[in-house]
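Our consortium's second objective concerns turning raw sequence data into structural hypotheses that experimental partners can test. To show how far this objective has progressed, the report includes one record in full. It was chosen at random from the queue rather than selected for favorable results. The single chain below, 350 residues long, was entered without modification.
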Amino acid sequence: MCVPVGESVYQFDFSSLCPEACGVRVVVGLVALIGAASCQGSALDVSSTSQYAVTVLPAAVDFGTVLVHGTAGPSTVTVRPQGLGASSDSITAIAPTTACPDFAVSAPGLPAFVYRTCNPTCPGHTICQPNFAAAACAGGTDEEQDYPFSVSFTPTVSGPLSCVVAITLASGSTSMVSLSGTGMAPPVQISAAPANIAFGDVRAGTDSSPATVTIGDLGGSPLTVTSAAVSGGFVLGGSSAFSVPPGGAQALTVTCHAPAVGPVSGQLVITSNDTANSPLTIPLTCAGVSSNLEITPSPATLPPTLVGNPIVQHVVIANAGSAPTTVTSLALDGEGLTLVTPLPGATALG
């Protein structure tokens, strides 16, 4: 901006504006423009309050719906001179009016000047700088300095959230920008281990050893299991309806009860609020077999004998069923009884 001779000194936050021909003088890091006979153009009307007006674009930023702990942005908000005339003010602070932990504001380099100068040309010179934005200044060319800052949204809770950011100016006025967004709880994600259970051979009419199924929640919201059920031939242990917190787990037990000889197949079916994986099915299999140990003689009765004279009784263990059986241990219970031929280890009986 050029200031005609006799006009008031006006200070900007520039390091350099106009060459010496315009009468430039640096004063404590600021630049004072002293009117020179060679300067041309209109002077800034320092008596008008319009020179302090700024515009915030956009005046409101809506980040939409964002997953909790996710981030939207950054979005740019620009503070610029209002209208089309000459204007100048300094931004001293940009901060939320109240605590807004879900919104972030990045406004480096404060304080910062925001201004527009009209007809700032000296003979053979210009005070334009490369980063100025062009705008239609009333009556002629202009130079404009805007101030952009960024805002972002990282919700920590679900539901609608908002924040008001105040832009404080050296002239004493304050402009506002409204921020809003909605936090959405991450979806639930059910997990189940193991993915299937094979019990192997189970004596028909008896229960197998129980197998454990662990139901977990890998998502960010509580998992609600409304139903857990098994088909025929299997027995479910534990609650059939329960909740699991994010990162938590719930154990269920399943037992095979083969009703007859032959293969048995079924499913553990889990219904939950994980709509993408409900119902969840876990295949179950076992095989009913007929294995039947016979002990001969039974009962084994020992005849009377003198004290100190041992008597031996032979006992035969046989598999009378249709499926192989493995004897893993053999022991006697009673006073004065001794097992003469111990079991050599796990013994299969065909």
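The partners drew two points from this record. Residues 1-50, 120-136 have pLDDT under 50 and may be disordered. Residues 105 and 277 are 39 Å apart (CA to CA). Both points have been shared with the crystallography group to help prioritize constructs.
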